[in-house]
Design goal:
heterodimer, A: alpha/beta, B: mainly alpha, 3 helices
Chain lengths: 363, 134
């Protein structure tokens, strides 16, 4: 009897394994077809919000509250010019915005929109000295509070630094920067590719106006050329896993939906920042005002990712040494440019840190 | 019995080990290849090549733009420049409307005039304190 029972076990296991593999293969086919036909796309940017100000392509969102009481000082998320903002409001359970709302913050976001051909003349001055102040006025009107905090991600952090440095008397209470480069000498391959000996930015901008999104996408891809193919292989390996596929599709969508870079801003970015590193040297001039980060005296929290290949650690780490604040802190998280603010890493590390830091400074 | 139990767990762990090995190999290969390509892409030669590519692209694009403008003008059709100009004019109109709106709002607020009723969203009170103070 024992011998018969023992001999059935391997057969049962083989049948079980075969059944599991068959089930997975069915899921792989189904999910594969969904992806190829772009069916059942995961929803993104899901947190309910109202547009309280719009101008050109800019939209200022006020997110609907999720707590019974909120902190006095609202927080305004300032997004990068070159990527879609819903990375900060990814999906259910993975939204930085939702997390902050649940923690009791009154949350706004400046969404720059997708630049049109006629926006190619926009410069840093337009964003920092016009669009941002007008948006903050609307935040003040909406909340009835003068004070506000800014959280800037990537180039949004650069805009926030420029605003704070050129408006030291503004009622800006706190500044949080995430993956924000300040020392362009640390920008790795981007610095090498924009070498003034070989890169004629004037000819490019004079011809195309805005930098096309395809060019933006290819330049980001070239930073790590194998990532796309490694991603496809992992996807095929895990096509049976609905959670993996869901996460892959969201990140794939965000990575591939690049937006144009306004031409004159790009020209300034290359000449003033990449070539002459003026943010680092305090020589950047915006409409007659010097961007001296020493003028920033408010509390600053700088978040960096250790393995950020887009805004490398060498480019982001000098930030605190440049500001004039006494209350300043930094947090370095294992991970990359995106996982700093979105995903499991962010949920466990950055979000609670930002919420806690701001909570003590938003009353 | 113990032998059977041992062999069932060894089958599962063998499968798991193989999958783990495959994933580790994939990650390591990806990392090494990225490093390899990164070194090539970081050379001066590549920078010169990519700069030349961008220049070439700009030259071709400019020629195409000019040619297309000529064709469209010939057929009396709006060109890219015409559309951009139209967009800029609409922008200016929007800016002026926004400015008028702001002026009117300011006048109304200063005069204390009653405006048409609008729904005021209910907002939570701004009295929250940090958890550590609770």
């Amino acid at each position: 009897m024992a011998t018969v029972r023992q001999s059935h076990r391997p057969v049962e296991q083989i049948l079980e394994t075969a059944q599991e593999e068959a089930q997975r293969t069915r899921e792989r086919i189904r999910k594969g077809i969904d992806i190829l036909l772009a069916r059942d796309e995961p929803p993104v940017g899901v947190t309910p919000k109202d547009i309280v100000y719009s101008r050109g392509t800019l939209k200022l969102y006020h997110y609907r509250p999720m707590a019974d009481t909120v902190y006095r000082v609202p927080v305004v998320f300032v997004m990068s010019l070159v990527s879609k903002p819903w990375i900060l409001d990814l999906t259910f359970g993975q939204s930085f915005i939702q997390y902050m709302l649940a923690q009791g913050f009154d949350v706004f976001m400046i969404d720059w929109g997708i630049p049109r051909p006629e926006d190619s003349h926009l410069r840093f001055e337009d964003y920092v000295q016009d669009f941002m102040p007008r948006s903050f006025e609307h935040v003040q009107r909406e909340t009835g509070e003068q004070d506000f905090s800014i959280l800037g991600y990537c180039m949004g952090g650069m805009l926030a630094l420029m605003y704070a440095a050129t408006n030291p008397d503004a009622p800006l209470k706190n500044l949080v920067t995430a993956a924000t480069p300040v020392d362009m000498n640390g920008m790795g391959l981007f610095k090498k590719w924009t070498n003034p000996k070989y890169f004629d930015v004037d000819r490019l901008i004079d011809t195309v106006g805005n930098i096309p999104p395809e060019m933006m996408l290819r330049s980001f891809e070239l930073l790590r050329p194998m990532d796309r193919w490694g991603g496809y292989i992992r996807l095929i390996d895990n096509l049976w896993d609905p959670m993996f596929v869901y996460g892959f599709r969201i990140m794939y969508k965000w990575t591939n939906e690049q937006i144009p870079f306004p031409g004159e801003t790009y020209r300034q970015f290359i000449k003033d920042l990449m070539w002459e590193n003026k943010l680092m040297t305090g020589q950047m001039n915006l409409g007659g005002k010097l961007v001296d980060l020493k003028n920033i005296k408010i509390p600053v929290l700088n978040a960096m990712a250790q393995h950020d290949h887009i805004a490398p650690y060498d480019a982001t780490s000098p930030l605190l040494s440049l500001v004039g604040s006494e209350d300043k802190e930094e947090i370095v998280v294992k991970g990359g440019h995106v996982s700093l603010v979105a995903g499991k890493n962010a949920i466990g590390r950055l979000w609670p840190k930002v919420a806690d830091w701001l909570s003590h400074r938003s009353v | 019995m113990p032998a059977t139990n041992g062999s069932s767990s060894s089958t599962d762990s063998a499968t798991g080990d193989a999958a783990q090995l495959w994933r580790a190999w994939l990650s390591e290969t990806e990392r090494q290849l990225n490093g390899f390509f990164g070194e090539i892409l970081g050379t001066d030669e590549f920078a010169r090549l990519s700069g030349g590519f961008v220049d070439g692209y700009a030259v071709i694009q400019r020629a195409l733009n000019q040619q297309m403008e000529r064709y469209l003008n010939t057929f009396n059709l709006p060109t890219h420049s015409d559309i951009i100009e139209l967009g800029e004019r609409m922008n200016n109109i929007e800016e002026r409307l926004a400015s008028l709106e702001a002026t009117i709002r300011s006048i109304v607020e200063q005069s204390g005039m009653e405006t048409t009723a609008r729904v005021t969203p209910i907002r939570p009170s701004r009295t929250r304190r940090p958890r550590s103070e609770a």
